[in-house]
Write a sequence for this structure.
């Protein structure tokens, strides 16, 4: 298959070069070329100035949004092959079955992406051919409120969606089209000179406030809540329990997050991410629970040279196993306990060469599945690009030890509100319920409950059936995960930890 990409020939962007490179390496795509169009007006200079200010103040790199010289397109300039698909990034070609057009919130052109982000929205990206949506997703960002970060995250995920859709087309896999109507195209919103000055002033003030906050408080600082489970759990309730939660105390110099309870060998332990603020690198710790709650404080049970979190623990074949998040190492690893709750030894690397968040295992239909959100690997960003929260990928294997095969529809979902795992998947009434993190307006803002409607080697779908937010029973601004085990139910969320504690204060 030959793909031709129509784009601005005078001011190509780095994300467009990344897209061309990705398509050229996609199986089934034989050749890739560019149609260097003349675009009357690109992004305004005020946007470029704002990007430079944000990059300076927030110490951000320029990734997908960076302007490149026209010579960057030279390797792709060719007209000797008739294209099978024309990908129109300018939005000025007539629509047709072989012409795919990009739209953000139903409007063509990347000006529409700016308009959506400036309005504080979560952009909806669609690929449209002859009026039919062939692929779509909602684009997340890890730094809400910073336009440069939002644009770069959205453009990275745009590359993900386009490459996956064209890869499916090249492999002859026809996805069922969406019938959702698109609104008419509208002009994108831009910044005026006055708006730019106002935004810059707010940005500088916000950076000062942010710095002062970090001087006074240790941030981020998470906390875990637990309760005895003697009735419906959070998933069945669909709300916080009337009795609320009991905090797992910390000393303020560290926080605990991602609690996973496990009953094994006649005792129940809760495994957590322990993050000492002094080191800035998390380890996995565990605390035994008795009839009256935790017996002491969590003690370290697993440490690696890289950051560890989300200790997904389970029992199988009479052994205790753990798959902690180790995205900083680019792997998903399986550990076995030799002296439970400690003595963890690495048994296998399940996935490698990936920046995967919160890997969650599920045994279903005679196969094991891994659910995780994935960042894109790019040379200029060692930790990957795009949001950590919005692209759900699946892998399956005949055994939990592997070998794992990626799902052909990866990413099976792009949506910051419903993609990232938030704990163990549970069965209710013959249906699987998947806790998910709602990160649409920020990391771990709320807990969603998604019913899995389809899970097989050819497809995946889910339906959001509930959403639980922080509130009087769980004060704070975040609700992150939920897990049960050994008669204990645990959640986690945000807290404040002053850097200087006053005498007599706990």
């Amino acid at each position: 298959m030959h793909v031709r990409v129509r784009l601005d020939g005078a001011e190509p962007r780095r994300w467009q070069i990344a897209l061309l490179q990705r398509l050229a390496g996609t199986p089934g795509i034989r050749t890739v070329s560019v149609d260097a169009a003349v675009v009357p007006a690109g992004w305004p200079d005020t946007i470029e100035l704002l990007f430079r200010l944000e990059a300076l103040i927030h110490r951000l790199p320029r990734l997908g949004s960076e302007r490149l010289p026209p010579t960057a397109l030279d390797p792709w300039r060719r007209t000797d092959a008739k294209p099978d698909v024309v990908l129109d990034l300018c939005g000025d070609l007539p629509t047709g079955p072989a012409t795919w057009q990009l739209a953000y919130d139903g409007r063509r052109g990347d000006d529409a992406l700016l308009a959506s982000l400036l309005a504080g929205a979560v952009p909806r990206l669609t690929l449209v051919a002859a009026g039919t949506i062939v692929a779509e997703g909602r684009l997340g960002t890890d730094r809400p409120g910073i336009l440069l970060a939002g644009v770069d995250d959205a453009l990275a995920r745009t590359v993900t969606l386009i490459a996956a859709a064209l890869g499916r087309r090249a492999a002859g896999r026809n996805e069922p089209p969406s019938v959702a109507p698109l609104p008419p195209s509208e002009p994108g919103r831009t910044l005026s000179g006055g708006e730019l000055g106002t935004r810059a002033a707010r940005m500088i003030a916000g950076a000062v406030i942010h710095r002062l906050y970090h001087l006074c408080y240790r941030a981020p600082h998470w906390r875990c809540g637990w309760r005895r489970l003697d009735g419906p759990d959070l998933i069945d309730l669909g709300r916080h329990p009337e009795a609320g939660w009991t905090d797992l105390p910390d000393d303020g110099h560290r926080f605990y997050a991602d609690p996973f309870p496990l009953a094994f060998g006649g005792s129940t332990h809760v495994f957590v991410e322990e993050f000492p603020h002094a080191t800035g690198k998390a380890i996995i710790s565990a605390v035994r629970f008795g009839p009256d709650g935790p017996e002491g404080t969590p003690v370290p049970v697993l440490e690696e040279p890289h950051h560890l979190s989300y200790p997904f623990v389970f029992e199988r074949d009479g052994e205790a196993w753990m798959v902690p998040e180790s995205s900083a190492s680019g792997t998903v690893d399986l550990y076995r306990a030799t002296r439970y709750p400690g003595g963890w030894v690495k048994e296998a690397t399940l996935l490698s060469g990936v920046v995967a968040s919160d890997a969650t295992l599920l045994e279903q239909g005679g196969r094991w599945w891994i659910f995780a959100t994935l960042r894109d690997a790019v040379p200029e960003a060692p930790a990957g690009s795009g949001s950590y929260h919005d692209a759900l990928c699946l892998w399956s294997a005949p055994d939990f030890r592997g070998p794992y095969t990626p799902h052909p529809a990866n990413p099976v979902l792009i949506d910051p509100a419903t993609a990232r795992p938030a704990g163990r998947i549970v069965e209710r009434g013959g249906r699987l319920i998947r806790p998910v993190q709602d990160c649409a307006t920020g990391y771990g803002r709320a807990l969603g409950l998604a019913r899995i409607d389809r899970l097989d080697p050819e497809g995946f779908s889910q339906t959001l059936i509930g959403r639980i937010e922080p509130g009087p029973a769980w004060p704070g601004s975040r609700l992150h995960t939920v897990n049960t085990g050994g008669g204990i139910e645990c959640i986690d969320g945000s807290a404040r930890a002053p850097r200087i504690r006053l005498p007599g204060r706990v």
Helices lie at 14-24, 45-58, 111-118, 147-170, 193-216, 234-237. Residues 130 and 177 are 12 Å apart (CA to CA). Residues 176-188, 501-506 have pLDDT under 50 and may be disordered.
